[in-house]
Design goal:
Blueprint lengths: L1 H38 L3 H4 L1 E8 L18 E10 L6 E9 L2 E2 L12 H6 L2 E4 L7 E4 L3 E5 L2 E5 L5 E9 L2 E12 L4 E5 L3 E7 L1
Antiparallel strand pairs: 1-2, 1-12, 2-3, 3-4, 3-7, 5-6, 7-8, 8-9, 9-10, 10-11, 10-12
């Protein structure tokens, strides 16, 4: 009997260790997926209205031409894509909310703006006298690359930074950049701001 027990004991240990290894691997896999969601949000997760609940920006700060997010401001991010006429600019459509007003929306629009409102505000004009042969105006667009979020106006000015998401909370660490079109270079950049948003 002793001989039989000693023959089977190593096999039982091997099965136990194999099961333990598989269980550990499964736990690590699920943990990694959870962390990846925070570090690499998708545009699908971003879609919707986000309202700023905390911000390092003080409305008393003087930042010519820039509008960092303060408490109560927000953004509506959509999955509809856009490419400019010259094919140099592309991203997804979005709206920004400042001081209780959605920007780049016609004054008579009430409630949350839609894709139609975004398109209604866009216009394009060809003119030989213009430096680039045309003028194009459109609303805010955003792009997401990994966890890097950029929100841009048609004059190329933008906010650029990184985001992290935890459920319905989004934290955006960003700077405001002033760009010059034509040579497409950044002229100046603000200090870094941190704004926290809750999904509406």
């Amino acid at each position: 009997m002793r001989g039989t027990q000693s023959k089977h004991k190593p096999m039982k240990n091997f099965k136990f260790l194999t099961s333990l290894f598989i269980l550990t691997l499964v736990c690590i896999t699920f943990t990694s997926c959870s962390d990846d969601d925070k570090d690499n949000p998708s545009t699908a997760n971003l879609e919707g209205v986000w309202i700023c609940t905390e911000s390092t920006y003080d409305d008393g700060e003087s930042i010519p031409g820039f509008s960092p997010f303060s408490v109560g401001d927000g953004m509506k991010l959509m999955n509809q894509s856009f490419t400019s006429i010259d094919k140099l600019v592309s991203g997804n459509m979005c709206f920004l909310l400042y001081d209780g007003r959605w920007y780049d929306v016609k004054p008579d629009v009430t409630g949350e703006p839609t894709v139609k409102d975004w398109l209604d505000d866009r216009w394009y004009m060809e003119d030989e006298d213009l430096e680039f042969g045309y003028a194009e105006e459109f609303g805010y667009i955003y792009s997401l690359n990994g966890n890097k979020l950029s929100i841009m106006q048609c004059d190329l000015d933008r906010t650029v930074g990184t985001i992290s998401m935890d459920g319905n909370t989004l934290t955006y660490t960003y700077t405001c950049q002033d760009w010059k079109s034509g040579p497409n270079i950044m002229v100046s950049e603000s200090k870094t701001f941190i704004s926290k948003f809750e999904k509406k």
